[in-house]
Amino acid sequence: MEEAIMKKLLVVIDYQKDFVDGALGFPKAVTLEQGIYDRVSEYLKNGDKVLFTYDTHFENYLSTREGRNLPVMHCIKDSEGHKLFGKLVDFENAENTLHYEKKGFGIAPKDMLKIADELGEDIEKIELIGVVTNICVISNLVMFQSQFRNADVVVDASLCASFDESLHEKTLDVVEGLQGKVINRK
Question: What single string gives the DSSP state of each residue in 93-137?
Fold first, then answer.
């Protein structure tokens, strides 16, 4: 009898230049590069899909709700800060990758429906990594849990970071409270 292969998805949240060493960069984010690169490589080698999210803003950012609350221009479409950070640019056109621009913290519901159509509803495990744990990582956890109701949604704590370590840890507690799984937590 042939063993069933688990259908998995890796989601790399906003690992973009502006969040790593640009306008909103922070030291901990820089340290994630090799680990994220290796995890993406592992998923692709195993034939699994990898989805990259891109925080995406426009020149009017400061007049938006988010811009009024966080008045730092960042991840402006087509800017250097909008691009994937470091070696992750190797995956910009890689087979089995999907790339989604999001204009808020989480992937928009209409885009989540497109993702589900493209990937199918039979995904068993969704792993989230990237930045910022207490903003976009948790927002996308909720979106993926809502769309893929039977998938295990996992956050790898060692491949996520926040500019505030205390908020990072509190967010991991909330993830567990939302029935997400946290792995590699110190």
Answer: T-TTEEEEEESSSS--HHHHHHHHHHH-S---EEEEEEE-IIIII
Which residues are bridge partners to 125 per DSSP?
8, 152
d(CA 169, CA 105): 19
Instruction: Return the CATH number of the domain spanning residue range 8-183.
Output: 3.40.50.850
Three-state secondary structure call for residue 16: strand
**pLDDT tens string for the chain (186 positions)?**
555 678 999 999 999 999 999 999 999 999 999 999 999 999 999 999 999 999 999 999 999 999 999 999 999 999 999 999 999 999 999 999 999 999 999 999 999 999 999 999 899 999 999 999 999 999 999 999 999 999 999 999 999 999 999 999 999 999 999 999 999 998
- Show me where the domains of the chain are located: 8-183
